[in-house]
From TrEMBL:
<comment type="similarity">
    <text>Belongs to the free Met sulfoxide reductase family.</text>
</comment>
<dbReference type="InterPro" id="IPR000614">
    <property type="entry name" value="FRMsr_CS"/>
</dbReference>
<feature type="domain" description="GAF">
    <location>
        <begin position="38"/>
        <end position="145"/>
    </location>
</feature>
<dbReference type="Pfam" id="PF13185">
    <property type="entry name" value="GAF_2"/>
</dbReference>
<dbReference type="InterPro" id="IPR003018">
    <property type="entry name" value="GAF"/>
</dbReference>
<dbReference type="GO" id="GO:0005829">
    <property type="term" value="C:cytosol"/>
</dbReference>
<protein>
    <submittedName>
        <fullName>GAF domain-containing protein</fullName>
    </submittedName>
</protein>
<dbReference type="InterPro" id="IPR051330">
    <property type="entry name" value="Phosphatase_reg/MetRdx"/>
</dbReference>
<dbReference type="InterPro" id="IPR029016">
    <property type="entry name" value="GAF-like_dom_sf"/>
</dbReference>
<dbReference type="GO" id="GO:0033745">
    <property type="term" value="F:L-methionine-(R)-S-oxide reductase activity"/>
</dbReference>
Length: 156
């Protein structure tokens, strides 16, 4: 199966899972579980939500994680500050990387926008270098959009 087909199927699974449920917290919890179950070679999948000038840990699957990340710090904070997804082949080469799990080697982070404002980020880590590529990024951005489309987001 091609990556494009895989992510199309993953988005369809998420859409089905979220049918008749609009709760943001419940939906992000199920989305992180689905990602952790279906993506190969990852060790963490979850969400950080924006509160003031920091990101706070939301629903996730994997080892315990950093609870708070300042906007502009690490890969997650950089994605939030720049408003752009981050695809990092080697987190150890990323300036200011925050090592919540020393085993993580690559990462993809997608800012989540609704109603013209950023709510937080979707963060996925892998123990393998260069685990994610442009196709993964596009597929995960589409996944995030399905989540947003099926959820009543806070403050939106």
């Amino acid at each position: 199966m091609s990556l494009t087909s895989f992510y199309s199927s993953l988005c369809a699974q998420l859409s089905g899972l979220l049918t008749d449920e609009r709760d943001w917290l419940a939906n992000t919890a199920n989305a992180s579980a689905l990602l952790f179950l279906e993506l190969r070679d990852i060790n963490w999948a979850g969400f950080y939500f924006l509160y003031g000038d920091e990101l706070r840990l939301g629903p996730f699957q994997g080892k315990p994680a950093c609870t708070r990340i300042a906007v502009g710090s690490g890969v997650c904070g950089t994605a939030l500050a720049s408003g752009e997804s981050q695809l990092v082949e080697d987190v150890h080469q990323f300036p200011g990387h925050i090592a919540c799990d020393a085993v993580s080697a690559s990462e993809v982070v997608i800012p989540l926008y609704a109603g013209g404002r950023c709510l937080g980020v979707l963060d996925i880590d892998s123990p393998s270098l260069a685990r994610f590529d442009a196709e993964d990024l596009a597929g995960l951005e589409a996944f995030a959009q399905v989540l947003l489309d099926h959820s009543d987001t806070p403050g939106a």
